[in-house]
Amino acid sequence: MAMSCIPLVLLLCLVVPGTVASPRKLRKSPTEIAALDAAAPAPAGASGPTTFFEVDRPLHPPPGSSGPCSTLLLSASFAFTFTKPPATAAYSPPACLAAAGGGASAISLAVLEWRATCKGVQYDRIFGVWLDNAELLRGSTAEPLPDGVVWSVSKDVTRHASLLAAGGNSTLAVFVENLVNGGLTGVYHANVTLHLYFHPAPPPTPPPAVGPADVIVPMSRGLPLNDGLWYKIQNASDAASATVTLPPNTYRAVVEVFVSFHGDDEFWWTNSPGADASGPFREVTVRVDGVFAGAAWPFPVIFTGGINPRLWQPITGIGSFNLPTYDVELTPLLGKMLDGKPHEVGFAVTNAVDVWYVDANLHLWLDPGSAATAAGLVSYVAPELAANATSSQTTASRQVSAIGWVKSSYGNITTNVTQTFAFDNTNAGETVNQTTVAHAGVAATGDDGVVYYSVQTQQNFPLLWDSEENQVTVTRGFEETTVAAGRWSSGPPYRSLRTTQQSSVAGESWSIRQTYRYEATDGCYFRNVTSSGYSIVSDHSNEVCAKGTPAGAAGR
């Protein structure tokens, strides 16, 4: 999905969600898209829209839950939206939430569903959904076919329960960056629905620090405005920031970062270190009052029209309909922030080229047993980014660690936070081989040595792009393993996601194969699906945990 001079496809300069201004010309023009559609064999039963989908696991509520209680939040159409405000709707907690006991703790699972359709010639577009200026979902639209396309996204938004349950009137905002003119005819029609499931009454008391946050502070441009609510980072020296004054009884703080890349930087990972001054390395940095707090090294999402639209039809690219988010733990820095004064949380993108869309939500946990907590920083180590580039290879690494204590009614708890990153990109002209590895660790320990919660997450993002004269093949993966422990730990102690996708286009033929394996101590999901052209030729799935794995050992 791109965005050029501003967002998506405004002629040349505005070809956004994935647009057309890439040096490698990895975007098709409207005329080329129409020709591509005309040359390809029509989907079976092409009298109606074709369904595109992103492979993901089904979302199940915990055992014993009631529901779903489903509420249509907004239904809107998006034609020419540049310089226009988002579609909005008033939001208040559904009546079924009050009937279930009210409050965020009654919610066992919250699912935000996006369902949309489009017909005609159009680029894929970036879209976002915000509640009270806090982003809940960001995705790419499907790039439509002449007879139409339909797709849906279901995202677990349980961590935003405090927003969903907040009393009073709120505003839901939805923005799809779209352009309609003589060559681009597609109008996007979308419904946004909230599905809630509930714990049996009375709802349980959520564990401290690891359940949904008590307060979520939006860090976006906010309404009203004639655009999406995200900040726009246009170059490496650009930055965006939000000012926040923390409640005095805060005892944990986490920034949830939303990020997408468009326009001239949609295909940042294809940049040659020798030919492109910005090179192929990118990171999103988070700073508190100018001090580096952590980073997100982004997964290289390829939007549904990127490189060649056929690569993602009907099985769309990993993360394209539901973009990944990234957490940065700020708890060790609370000693600098709990002074009753406003503090600046800033965001920037290393080596950025126009344009990146970034915003965030600040999740805060509040001590119910005291009016004010006390905190202090014990240690902080954050060496500068280490990066090196030759004519064909770029490497980078970074690490940061911080230790801080917070004294609350739960006791004096010390939190140790670490992040380590490694990046390697080799560019041989028409072949790009890239790997990003990230590790994030959080461990909270009491003075008595008791571990209250510990979460260790390892990520790996391999990517191989091979382009020959008449054939393009993209192979990539998203791998993430999380191990959690501690007295307050909730959710599965172990969960692992490994998904690999290979997409290939040769002449007028194309095929996609994806394997998806999710394993956790509370359930598993496996799917192996293959398409040829628009047709699914093989599709196998189950929810059986393999023996010999941590999930299988749990007896699932």
From TrEMBL:
InterPro entries registered for this protein in UniProt: PNGase_A, PNGaseA_N
UniProt KW DNA repair keyword: no
UniProtKB keywords: Signal
A Pfam family assignment: PNGaseA
Ranges for domain Peptide N-acetyl-beta-D-glucosaminyl asparaginase amidase A N-terminal: 59-380
Signal peptide annotation: 1-21
Matching PANTHER family: PEPTIDE-N4-(N-ACETYL-BETA-GLUCOSAMINYL)ASPARAGINE AMIDASE A PROTEIN (PTHR31104)
Name of the protein in question: Peptide N-acetyl-beta-D-glucosaminyl asparaginase amidase A N-terminal domain-containing protein
Organism this protein belongs to: Urochloa decumbens
